[in-house]
Amino acid sequence: MRNDFVFIDEYMPGVRWDAKYATWDNFTGKPVDGYLANRIVGTRALCAALQTAREEAAARGFGLLLWDGYRPQRAVDSFLRWSKQPEDGRTKHRHYPKIDRPEMFENGYVAAKSGHTRGSTVDLTLYHLESGDLAAMGGDHDLMDSVSHHGAEGISRAEADNRRRLRSIMENSGFSSYACEWWHYTVKDEPYPDTYFDFPITQVILG
For Zn(2+), which residues are the binding ones (predicted)? Predict the structure, then answer.
């Protein structure tokens, strides 16, 4: 792992995370290539901006739950291969109920060159500090549907308010949002805007 990349839980002790692509709980239905440990990795710039976001969220009574950060290019390549395989229906209802697999790329939900692979993009949500419960957002991580877009119709007022709250926190902390996914944010001044890394996520930092 490059020296400028760190485990976010070590940089930000106490942060909550659930590395979806290291588990069976993702749109492919199995652990993804390159995710060999259930950890979230990112650049130091990402961590610094996230720390600012965590402090602002805490002032509003919320914490951050991270789903993904740095994503190896081999993982993105595996998404491409998966999209060309016959549909088995295992994850369609939950993650892409109204589209076919290839449309994930056509509609901008998955990219052949992902911002995650540059190391300064994060997928995340809010939770209530008092109860630990996730904030209602009107859809889960990687729901590839128009309801996941910023400003989407069909969600409750409370869910829309929580999305706006997350967006405000993140943009105030130096992130830019992504129109198609309420959970997806990138550091505005990312350190590697043109570099797509491919080292795997493991328990050991190789340096």
Answer: 116, 123, 184
The half-sphere exposure of 46 on its side-chain side, counting CA atoms within 13 A, is 29
**Annotated binding-site residue? 150:** no
Whether 181 is a known active-site residue: answer yes
Angle at 47 between CA 63 and CA 184, to 5 degrees: 65
**Whole-Å CA distances, 92 to 28, 31, 101:** 9, 17, 9
Q: Which two tokens stand for residue 63?
A: 């914490």
Please choose, from the candidates 17, 2, 6, the residue with its C-alpha nearest in 3D space to the C-alpha of residue 123: 17
pLDDT of residue 206: 47
Closest of 54, 192, 46 to residue 125, by C-alpha: 54
Structure tokens at 98: 């109204």
pLDDT along the chain (207 residues), means of 10: 88 95 97 97 97 98 98 97 96 97 93 95 98 97 97 96 98 98 98 96 68
Catalytic residue among 10, 56, 103, 181: 181
pTM of the model: 0.95
